[in-house]
Design a protein that fits this description.
- The protein is mostly helical.
- The protein contains 13 helices and four strands.
- The protein folds into two domains: 125 residues, no CATH class; 168 residues, no CATH class.
- A hairpin with a 5-residue loop joins strand 3 and strand 4.
- It is globular, with a radius of gyration of 19 Å.
Length: 311
Amino acid sequence: MIQIFQEAALPKLSQTSMYTRYNQSSGITEAVKSEFATINEHIVKTSDIQEVISLMKLNGDAIIKKAIAAWDKGDMVVIFNPQSKIPSVLPYIIAGKESPKVYVFADKLMTKLTSTNEYVNLMAGIEAAYIALCMQNNPNKFINNRDLMLSMAYLYQYMAVTPLETKLYMKGDNLVKAMLYMIAYFYKIVDGDKIAAERINYKRLINQKIDPKIFQQIVEDVKNMGDTSFLSLLELIKKINPVRYKDINNMYVTYFVQTCGMPIIFALENPTYLVLLLTSASYKTRLTQFGLNKLVGATCKKINVIINGMV
């Protein structure tokens, strides 16, 4: 049996609050174990979908060619099983301790494997999975690239705040404070206890005049959360207006799915899933919502250039 494994300087997937939530309701761990038990029956090789692979190489960016090479090498395993019980919140997962591989559940990305209409979904999925594997194998290489982390923080804060702005109609100073909390939380994920306000260039992320003391306090609040649970962050954001945002814990996930998309729900707590927003927005897929894709599109192109030189 293959052992599920997701670890880096980033939180383990299985220890995040979102994974726990969906594991309780959908039995993700058991579903993955069941999938791996019959994995050989559903493995897809690049030779099985030559027309789709040709389209990827023709229309994809430089990274997709590296992802396809990893697929051929065996570092990436693509599975297509329409009867799979794995929920759509898990488009891919990294497994194995000594020689980790990334497993892509293609049936969560497309309905027909050979479809030339849906191939961009698969292209976005395998490219994101490949980048995630690179991050897994050498997390510090990515975390220590502060220009990359700054751009990823921009991507993250807009993704995470979209449900609040669109569904809870958060605006003005309240919205700015929520964005600052999101930025601080992202850096808590990647920097852990080393998080410090002076290491975060928030002025390049928010085009508003912010009192440095306010941001310093927000960083301290996030640093002292005691865990990296996104649900704990929502408790801090709720305090911005306890009456108006009293139901934020119960409604946030529903709002997120509606405004951002189900396949990137784990991106809230793990950057190895945030890269799916990067690739989905770059290829303009429907895996993530149109409005979000359009909002972060330019930033995604910038990040893609940086990452291409790292993977």
